[in-house]
Design a protein that fits this description.
heterodimer, A: about 240 residues, alpha/beta, Rossmann fold, 2 domains, four-stranded antiparallel sheet, B: about 220 residues, mainly alpha, binds adenosine-5'-triphosphate, binds magnesium ion
Chain lengths: ~240, ~220
């Protein structure tokens, strides 16, 4: 469902990605780990179609991003570093806008239902400006899943979420994968990430240094790989 | 997802945001009115000089206040990453551009519609003006100015010097539009026929189409890293 081949991204003279290949099938939760500046967000932005790779290609749900961008984006939901919400619009208005941008005509009750799913019922007509960081993140989740995507790309989605909301997100991610969706999850919480991911991809300095099924990794091997920039042999 | 539905969604969102905050319209209007009033003190009302300079004064007021609105239209998208969010949507990039152009044009035309009657009264202009012709020229002039301005606003929003870059780039690039607009506004204010300024209006129309086409084609390369 997610396929990337030879992704390279150069900013000026700095390589953010150096030939990244990855593949994630239906039902998989791919945990992407790496130290600060490893290129995780760059990878996410390229997969999401927000940035163009310097070279390499991306295919989402069988649609190459380069030639069938609209179809590829229509099947993908993204939560990034920023919430992409409009402070001066209410929660419902934000959702309605993105629904229209995805070609959906969701009626008010449906939008309210989406909001209550992320626990924002009762606050739907307040401007997002009045929301706490965690509430904004919940709304960003509702926004990203509005169009029932088959691929979910999450860049540090737990930022600002309280325990209840992160449990909600855990369940959302697991259910999503169980129903045949594909998740790419970037997180700095290695323990949490290992717990939820089915496969792991380790990114250091823009290179994939290791990947495999999640149970082949431990938090220790991952952190050691951050430091050495190399695959850590299993003891 | 139809192309026009995407444009309409972006347009609706920008109008709703402006309606909520009224930030652009209130600063634009204050600024526009200030220019009109200041120049009013320079000229003797009813003197022939007024008719000579009024197109220039009018368009100085319109374009400088329009600049304020245009420069905001992308800066609020940048702050929360709104533009990045728009890039996730399965629409052609140019729908974002056209939605914003329409939004900016609406705001500018609103200001023009409110300021123009005040201008007529203050400068004591003769009532026999060619109103229909003026409306046409205002719409075309505004569209051309906004077409360039919106594109440059997207370019400069990503740079550190975004407040400086836009006016520095916009006015030189928009010169053909501004000249054609001012040249056709004068005779129409004196009540002359549209046929008298047909060549300027045609030039205006040509530049509008050129700017809109060129901008919509390049927009994609500006907003994607
Ligand atoms: N717009 C940009 N311009 C220049 N360099 C950039 C840009 N975006 C990212 N980089 C560089 O690319 C590299 C990878 O950045 P990226 O944001 O992908 O890291 P990350 O793995 O997400 O880090 P973090 O864990 O801190 O979120 C960094 O060296 C960064 O400085
Ligand atoms: Mg990051």
């Amino acid at each position: 469902m997610i396929q990337a081949k030879g992704l390279t991204k150069i900013y000026g003279t700095r390589y953010a990605l150096r030939g990244v290949d990855l593949e994630a099938e239906a039902g998989e939760i791919l945990g992407v780990f790496g130290p600060n500046g490893a290129g995780k967000s760059t990878l996410v932005r390229i997969l999401a179609g927000q940035a163009k790779p310097s070279s390499g290609s991306v295919t989402l749900c069988g649609h190459p991003l380069a030639t069938e961008a609209a179809q590829a984006r229509a099947c993908t939901g993204v939560v990034g570093h920023l919430t992409y919400l409009y402070d001066d619009l209410t929660a419902v208005e934000n959702l309605r806008f993105f629904a229209r941008m995805f070609g959906l005509h969701l009626k008010e009750p449906e939008l309210l239902e989406r909001l209550s799913r992320v626990g924002l019922r009762g606050r739907e007509h307040e401007p997002v400006r009045h929301f706490s960081r965690g509430m904004q993140q919940r709304l960003a989740l509702a926004r990203a899943t509005l169009h029932n995507p088959r691929v979910l790309i999450l860049d540090e989605p737990y930022t600002g979420l309280d325990r209840q909301a992160s449990l909600f997100l855990d369940n959302l991610v697991r259910d999503f994968a169980r129903e045949g969706g594909t998740v790419l999850l970037v997180t700095h919480d290695v323990d949490h990430g290992l717990n939820i991911a089915t496969r792991v991809l380790l990114l250091v300095s823009g290179r994939v240094v290791d990947q495999g099924p999640a149970d082949a990794f431990s938090a220790q091997t991952i952190v050691t790989a951050y430091e050495t920039g190399r695959k850590v042999p299993q003891a | 997802m139809s192309y026009f539905a995407g444009i309409a969604a972006v347009y609706w969102k920008d109008v709703l945001l402006e309606f909520r905050t009224r930030q652009s319209l209130s600063t634009m209007f204050t600024f526009c009115l200030t220019i009109v009033i200041i120049f009013n003190f320079v000229f003797e009302p009813g003197s022939p000089a007024v008719l000579e300079v009024s197109p220039g004064v009018l368009w100085a007021a319109f374009t400088f206040s329009g600049l304020l609105g245009i420069s905001r239209s992308f800066s609020f998208e940048i702050d929360r990453g709104g533009l990045q969010g728009l890039l996730l949507c399965p629409v052609e990039r140019s729908t974002i551009y056209f939605g914003k152009v329409l939004g900016n044009a609406t705001f500018m035309l609103l200001i023009e519609a409110v300021t123009f009657p005040i201008f007529v009264v203050f400068y004591n202009l003769p009532p026999n003006m060619n109103l229909l012709g003026l409306v046409l020229v205002f719409v075309l002039g505004t569209l051309g100015f906004v077409a360039v301005g919106t594109l440059l606003s997207a370019i400069s929003a990503n740079t550190k010097a975004r407040e400086v870059l836009l006016p520095v780039l916009l006015f030189p690039v928009a010169v053909p539009v501004l000249v054609a607009t001012v040249k056709s506004t004068g005779p129409l204010l004196r009540g002359e026929d549209l046929a008298q300024v047909a060549s300027w209006v045609k030039l205006l129309l040509a530049f509008d189409l050129l700017f809109l086409a060129a901008s919509s084609l390049t927009f994609e390369f500006i907003v994607e890293e």
